[in-house]
Amino acid sequence: MRKLLLLFIFSVSISCFSQNKQILYNFTSVPQSMLSNPGSDVKYNWFVGIPLFSGFSTNVGSSGFSAFDLFANNGVDFNAKLRNVVFSTSRNDKVSINEQLEIFNGGFKLGDWQEGSYVSFGMYQEMDFFSYMPKDLAILALDGNQNYLGKVFDLGDLSAKGELLSVFHVGYHKNVNEKLILGARGKIYSSIFNVSSTKNSGYFYTIPGTNSIYEQVISSSVWANTSGFTNYIDNYDGNAKSDIIKKTFFGGNLGLGFDLGLTYYPQDNIQFTASILDVGFIKHTNEVRNYSYKGYYKYEGMTPDFIPGNSGESVFQEFLDAISLDTLSVKYTTSRPVKFNSSIQYSFGDGRDSECNCQGNNEMKFKNSVGAQLFVMSTPRTPLMALTTYYRRKFFDSLEMKATYTIDSFSSKNIGLGLSTTLGKVNFYVLADNLLEYRDISKANSLSFQLGVNIIFPDKNTPD
């Protein structure tokens, strides 16, 4: 039983998410930058992504341990390494995985360049899951409570949520004047699978009494909501592939959301940007299954062990009757993790070395830019934050580079690099984070990677 509990805890813990895309943000030679700020300063005539190849990203991180800590071939027993990981982490440590794949995307300008209006659209599939380290539950699974008399184990340590979904979006941005660009994006979410267990509470403790009498108390209010799984559990005889495709294209549990963004130039070479993303919700009404583990139990006696066969079966049955597992089908609503981005940038060096500004970006009148970016994302407890400084350089009309240094919950030495090149009308970009860790990725606390191919028709009438 303890092995099963440990397997559950760590399978939850290593499947989480972090959605900071600091290299892509404001990297406006890449059309996908509009997904991180619908008010980005881009002026393509139009662009279209190569279906399923225009954008792929994956992001993995851990603030408490690395794969090396658990699986290093160093002669240390796995159980010992597992104990070291459990006891070296805190309940606020988190691990992360996020994956996103663009199904299709595109955009086009409305009217001539003076009007400065732009429409973009697309659809992408995304998987994310967030979990804090359930430390007290892991200790119980490893050691039980025999050596922890008097310790109060917090059942609220279990906090996790995850989802596989598709997102259809349409965005619009407008150059209000020469200094200000505003943008907005509407989204329709179609949830394929969802699991959420974030509002848990309760405690468990054992204290010694007199004459070898123990007092043990369990108070539990633990909930887990799921959707999209029940058809595959209850004697399923359908076509799973067909079902998932149907849910991807608006056949799942639906929700709505929006993004807002802006770009502002107080001076020609100073830029300020900000965006707020995924302000939205999903209503789960189909294939819903809820699990609750609620109740209160107090035991006083010679043995506090409720494992069948070790103590009286009547004691164990009393415990099960007091705190039972209930299965329900209750509709529920989840909120998307809200992301906030903001940056300030200073540009310098004359970049007008060709007849036209083929990228069409105001700041690309300058060869060089330096800046700083703040990222904040909501979580079930405290917000996740990251601070990035960066340097951008335009080498030719067709090649641009962005180098970043990021401090966040996962690393204080995160160096990233992005390259974007446009050859003819084909734009290719590749972005990689935490480059120092690629020497031995098993020791990395975070890694991210993004790449894609687009067809771009730049606006050659856009003036410098």
Explain this structure.
The chain is mainly beta and 464 residues long. Helices cover 14% and strands 50% of the residues. It contains seven helices and 21 strands. The chain has helices at residues 2-13, 67-71, 78-88, 135-143, 230-233, 240-251, 313-322, and strands spanning 44-49, 56-62, 94-110, 117-132, 153-154, 160-175, 180-197, 201-208, 214-227, 253-267, 270-284, 288-301, 324-328, 332-335, 339-350, 366-377, 384-396, 399-408, 414-423, 426-432, 446-458. The protein has a 21-stranded antiparallel β-sheet that branches. α1 (2-13) runs antiparallel to α4. The protein is globular.
Mean pLDDT: 81
Secondary structure class reads mainly beta
Calculate the terminal CA-CA distance, rounded to whole Å.
Answer: 68 Å
Percentage of residues assigned to helices? 10-25%
Number of helices: 7
Order of helices and strands: HEEHHEEHEEEEEHHEEEHEEEEEEEEE
Alpha carbon gyration radius: 26 Å
Main sheet record: 21 strands, antiparallel
Share of residues in strands: over 45%
- How many runs of DSSP E, i.e. beta strands? 21
What is the overall shape? Answer: globular
Low-confidence stretches: 1-18, 306-313, 353-363
Main attributes?
21-stranded antiparallel sheet; single chain; 464 residues; 7 helices; 21 strands; 50% strand; disordered N terminus
Produce the secondary structure layout.
Layout: H1 2-13, E1 44-49, E2 56-62, H2 67-71, H3 78-88, E3 94-110, E4 117-132, H4 135-143, E5 153-154, E6 160-175, E7 180-197, E8 201-208, E9 214-227, H5 230-233, H6 240-251, E10 253-267, E11 270-284, E12 288-301, H7 313-322, E13 324-328, E14 332-335, E15 339-350, E16 366-377, E17 384-396, E18 399-408, E19 414-423, E20 426-432, E21 446-458
Antiparallel strand pairs: 1-3, 1-21, 2-3, 2-21, 3-4, 4-6, 5-8, 6-7, 7-9, 7-10, 8-9, 9-12, 10-11, 11-14, 11-15, 12-13, 15-16, 16-17, 17-18, 18-19, 19-20, 20-21
Helix pairs in contact: 1-4
